[in-house]
Amino acid sequence: MTRMLTLFLTILLFGSMAAWAADNAAVVGQWDVVGTDDAGQSANWTLVVKDDGGKLGGTLSGDPGEFSLVDAKLDGNAFTFKVIVNEATYTTEITINGNKFEGKYKGPEAAGTLKGTKHT
Question: Taking CA atoms, which of 7, 49, 66, 78 is between 20 and 30 Å from 97?
């Protein structure tokens, strides 16, 4: 009985990990992003999302530089993260739909919308 329970729990654990990794696959990769601030100014960015042993991370890069993703989380098709620019924290909320996403960002100096397309 103990062996059967151990086997069942092992299968359940690996099955849960595989499902979790498949969920992360929706966001992991390289994305071309266009950000438009509330004043209507657009900027191109590259978002790279990585799965490092179950923890999401990556970078957002563009003309102003490259910024590490902080507190990156995927919940269903909702992806959230923060970036710190000149000691100011910007929060980002994105909704993924296949190989595209739409979302918004907000920080102390700017806010706006984001649209992205994933490299295939």
Answer: 66
